Amino acid sequence: MRTLPKYAAVAAAAAAVVATAASPATAETSSPTVLSEGHADVLGVAYEDGALDLHVHDEENDAEYAPSEVVLAVNRAAKTTAPAGYDFLADGDSDVWILPDTEVEGLLFAGWATEEIAPGDFAGDTLTLTVHDAWGDVDLYTVDDLGDPTVLFDSDQGPGSFTVGAGSHGHLNWAFGEAGVYKLTVEAEGVLAATGETVSTGEVDYWFWVKK
């Protein structure tokens, strides 16, 4: 786990990004776009012209961005207390900022999507998403019907991978241990059904701003 820089410095940098971001956002803007609420396929995966691609799809405005063009804001309303039994979230402090896997007004509803992947392109109609690294304390997890969590990525444990189906869509919980600016490094890869070749997006950086 990498320690975050002092909050004052990162908050100032994030504020500068917010100040220069266009509104309403369009994919053509040269300044980073800030997405802070509503439905977004943060880990959007597509396969076109022999290349696998990671992108962000803003469902609210039907706009698509490269991850480098977007800052994903975690609003103050996301701040909560780590649920009992979720020891992987505590890290010595009960406060945690969570973007949940259910839609909450005023928060980003962040998920993944492979709806642009055609059935039969990849072996088993599956792909693998891997979070390689993150600044600070970050956990990605799902929760079953009984309330039990499955951790997909824990920045204290190193890289974490999970499998997703082609032509599908889903959501997960994004938890951050403190306010600040985070970078998550993500990769998508799959095995082509026709050739057995593994194709990858390479490592792609995503930026999150967790508000104090």
Would you give an account of this structure?
- With 212 residues, the chain is mainly beta.
- Helix content is 8%, strand content 49%.
- The protein is built from 2 helices and 17 strands.
- It has helices at 7-20, 87-90; strands at residues 33-35, 38-48, 51-58, 63-65, 70-74, 79-81, 95-99, 108-116, 126-134, 138-143, 149-154, 160-165, 169-171, 173-176, 180-191, 198-200, 204-210.
- Strands 1, 5, 9, 12, 15, 16 and 17 form a 7-stranded mixed beta sheet that branches. A 5-stranded mixed beta sheet has the order 4-3-2-8-13, with no helix packed on it. It has a 5-stranded antiparallel beta sheet with strand order 6-7-14-10-11.
- Strand 2 and strand 3 (51-58) form a beta hairpin.
- The longest helix has 14 residues, at 7-20.
- The two termini are 20 Å apart.
